[in-house]
Amino acid sequence: MDAIVALAKRRGFIFQSSEIYGGLNGFFDYGPLGVELKKNIRDCWWADMVRRRDDIVGVETSIIMHPKVWEASGHVAGFTDPLVDCKVSKQRYRADQLFFAAVVVTGADGVAKTVGYVSALESEKTTADLQAAAENLKRKKAIQGQLAPVQPKDMTEATPEEIPLIPSPATGEPGSLTEPRAFNMMFETHVGPMRDSSAVAYLRPETAQGMFVDFKNVVDTGRVKLPFGIAQIGKSFRNEITPRNFIFRSREFEQMEMEYFIHPDADWLKCHEEWLAWCQEWLKSIGLPESHLSLHEHPKAKLAFYSRRTVDIMFRYPFGVQELWGIAARSDYDLQQHQKHSGVPQVYFDEATKQKVVPHVIEPAVGVDRILLAVLCAGYAEEDVKDDKGNVEKRTVLRLSPRIAPVKVAVLPLLKNKEALVGRAKELYGKLKRNYAVFYDEAGAIGRRYRRQDEIGTPWCVTIDFDTIEKDGTFTLRERDSMQQKRITEAELFALLAEKVY
Ligand code: GAP
Questions:
Q1: Which of 1, 210, 245, 437 is the S-S candidate for 318 at Cβ 3.0 to 4.6 Å?
Q2: Measuring from atom 15 of ligand 1, which residue has the nearest CA?
Q3: How far lies 430's CA from each of 270, 272, 435, 439, 489, in Å?
Q4: CB 160: neighbour CB atoms within 10 A?
Q5: CB 439 within 8 A of CB 411
Q6: Does residue 306 register a pLDDT over 90?
Q7: Confidence of residue 319 (pLDDT cuts 50, 70, 90)
Q8: Can you tell me the distance from the alpha carbon of 194 to that of 176, in angstroms, rounded to the nearest whole number?
Q9: CA-derived radius of gyration, the chain
Q10: Is 172 a residue whose pLDDT tops 80?
Q11: Residue 389 pLDDT level (bands cut at 50, 70, 90)
Q12: pTM of the full predicted structure?
């Protein structure tokens, strides 16, 4: 992860927000290459989800909506995370990410006794950390006997009697952790000059509600027929208690969500499965390897308040297997809620039965930033390669799909002081630039220029050499992953790009 974060900074993909003031936790900026990569991810999703389908339309709704939207949706009352404070260190933890275990030792008398508690923050090795802490505690207190394997629980499961006995991860001492309390993650603001409660509004915590609130408008104006979807890409804001893992969990992020409305009598489970399959295929189409993807079905007891089934597509990040894309079956919860709270019927007229129905919804919801982090993690590699003289050197390479790579082709004249080479290179560069993100580079040895492109994920480099200008007009095409080179004509180059960049 450190290498990926360093590359992201060094090559201008991602910076800390307001870095010159020390940064702001949970906020990030995208640099010149990052913004291209992010835009390409968005554009691919929009093309495949909206433009290339006949049953899905797009919207762009406002970030700040009527506060009643969030009352109706359940977010004012229920969009909370359980928060635990450490009264001594003033640190705050998400209760479901703070784990503890009783330290149980069986003495010579055969009786198992709890001799203390240990705690650890959620990680890939939470259980191992707790076990190590338990062994430490037993050693420190010089307790004889057989230590039992720890049984980790999170702080939402702690009893009132246990809470004062659990050590704070910040101080290592018990007695300072509070009971978990519900913390609403919506950012509040005020609309207009008044700063009283009548002016309170929220920065949206999900883009989804925009689609529900505009459902009637789209039905009345869009000539849509069930089943159909409404899609949106846009910023969402959550005052996360513990933003972490770089851009994985941040406080300002971008979502790509689609609400797929189906007839209440339709087979929602089948539709849910179909969208689950679609989303996995789409992730593969932008270059995420199948080996890094898995599914996680939310247990019934842990479903979000609006969901009757949620399956997450998980991705193997360097910091663990984590949620990438949630596919939820939201039933008619949202439309019913808005119908109730607004008094405006949220119905669709079913021509077949001549009845008005409130459709049900399947919702694939994904974060652009999480996809971007996934493609960086999956694509990053450090390799030993041989240079022209056979010397082994390191190359850093980002294996990004041509669909999303920030730069598609680099155009390189073999020598920068040969006018004919430079002229032809600039001519080609100008032509490519009309349709593609292209980079022109004439500085340094050709091998060095290849390496610079490898590191930012450019799939192809084209070198203009003496054969180009003196012989047949072909260029050398060098492929990033295989590092193989071949001669190619201009027409072939454009055909290659048309096929791979879509
Ligand atoms: N409308 C449903 C909804 O918003 P969610 O599971 O809370 O569901 C959907 O969010 C997706 O948005 C997640 O799967 C994740 O990709 C992304 N996401 C959620 N919270 C995020 C955060 N704090 N930072 C970055 N991405 C986030």
A1: 1
A2: 367
A3: 49, 46, 10, 10, 16
A4: 7
A5: yes
A6: no
A7: very high
A8: 39
A9: 28
A10: yes
A11: confident
A12: 0.93
Residue 305 in this model has a pLDDT that exceeds 80: no
Q: What span, in angstroms and rounded, lies between the C-alpha atoms of 165 and 2?
A: 35
Atom of ligand 1 nearest to the CA of 255: 12
Beta-carbon count within 10 A of 270 CB:
11
Residue corresponding to tokens 């008398």: 109
Neighbouring C-beta atoms of residue 69, cutoff 10 Å: 23
**Helix residue ranges per DSSP H, 100-237:** 126-140, 208-213, 215-221
Residues 166, 172: Cα–Cα separation, whole Å: 9
pLDDT tens-digit profile of 178-212? 999 999 999 999 999 988 888 999 999 999 999 99
Hey, what long-range contacts does 275-284 have (CB within 8 A, 24 or more apart)?
275/327, 275/362, 275/364, 276/311, 276/313, 276/327, 278/364, 279/313, 279/325, 279/327, 279/364, 279/366, 280/313, 282/45, 282/48, 282/49, 283/313, 283/324, 283/325, 283/371, 283/374
Helix (H, G, I), strand (E, B) or coil at 442: coil
Ligand 1 centroid to residue 311 C-alpha, Å: 13
Å from CA of 233 to ligand 1 middle: 12
CB 366 within 8 A of CB 255: yes
- Average pLDDT over the chain reads 96
